[in-house]
């Protein structure tokens, strides 16, 4: 390309080049990162010109500038599409500048050893259990992605028939208790009682059972609850689900004592 091509940046930014010259300059701009960088620096000037009306520019123009060039410049700054055009030019210029920078990096690779890339330290993977080949038990409460945290304990009361599965998990604040109840008839009021090894006890939850119950023929869905106690896991002797009558008298429904 000729030196003239490198001197058309300002005229192109102002939009005063005719269609043929503009097309020729755009072809040059696609491969010349120097012109692209210069074009980017002219954006503030073009932005200021876009806010000046033609009459003001004519009044300020006191030189012997070519009248044809002045008329074309005034027409360019009047066009509302100037801002959009500048954004497009910026995108083109940025692409050329980036391409030029990448070309320099590529040349460095071809001319010698590539720069060392920091390598991440290897991390230890958590072992995963191998899938079991045994068929899944549909009555297992963990089936269906509902695996609970803690040690699992199952119990069924021979007298009431109430069935429970509990999970006790050690926590910094004490113990978390998650449980599922089935074959629990209603209506009734229930509570969850934690009995410590020193014979003290604590009620950690209460709830109401509707007439259809939970896990029954009328309502096949079991009841799921979560409660917490300040008692450490090692201090718990048993966890019991109790039924409370209208007089406040409690009777056991099912007990987990194998802790």
Automatic annotation (TrEMBL):
- Name the domain of life this protein comes from: Bacteria
Task: Please state the span of the N-terminal signal peptide per the UniProt entry.
Answer: none
Give residue spans, biased composition: Low complexity. Answer: 129-142
Has keyword Protein biosynthesis? no
Keywords from UniProt, A to Z, are: Membrane, Transcription, Transcription regulation, Transmembrane, Transmembrane helix
Region annotation Disordered: where it falls in the sequence: 113-161
All residue ranges annotated as the Putative zinc-finger domain in the record: 10-35
Q: Where are the transmembrane segments?
A: 89-110
Name recorded for this polypeptide: Zf-HC2 domain-containing protein
């Amino acid at each position: 390309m000729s030196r003239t091509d490198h001197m058309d940046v300002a005229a192109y930014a102002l939009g005063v080049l005719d269609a043929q010259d503009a097309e020729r300059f755009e072809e040059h701009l696609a491969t010349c990162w120097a012109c692209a960088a210069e074009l980017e620096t002219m954006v503030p000037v073009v932005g200021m010109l876009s806010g000046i009306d033609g009459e003001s520019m004519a009044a300020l123009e006191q030189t012997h500038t070519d009248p044809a060039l002045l008329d074309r410049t005034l027409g360019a700054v009047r066009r509302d599409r100037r801002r959009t055009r500048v954004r497009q030019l910026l995108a083109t210029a940025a692409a050329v500048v980036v391409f030029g920078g990448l070309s320099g990096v590529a040349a460095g690779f071809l001319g010698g050893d590539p720069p060392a890339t920091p390598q991440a330290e290897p991390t230890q993977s958590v072992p995963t259990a191998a899938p079991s080949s045994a068929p899944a038990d549909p009555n297992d409460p963990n089936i269906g992605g509902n695996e609970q945290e803690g040690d699992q304990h199952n119990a069924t009361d021979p007298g009431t028939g109430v069935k429970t599965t509990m999970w006790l998990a050690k926590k910094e604040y004490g113990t978390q208790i998650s449980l599922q109840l089935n074959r629990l008839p209603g209506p009734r009021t229930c509570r969850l009682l934690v009995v410590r090894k020193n014979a003290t006890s604590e009620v950690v939850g209460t709830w109401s059972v509707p007439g259809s119950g939970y896990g029954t023929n009328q309502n096949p869905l079991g009841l799921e609850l979560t409660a917490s106690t300040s008692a450490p896991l090692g201090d718990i002797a048993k966890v019991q689900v109790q039924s409370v009558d209208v007089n406040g008298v409690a009777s056991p429904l099912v007990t987990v004592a194998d802790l």
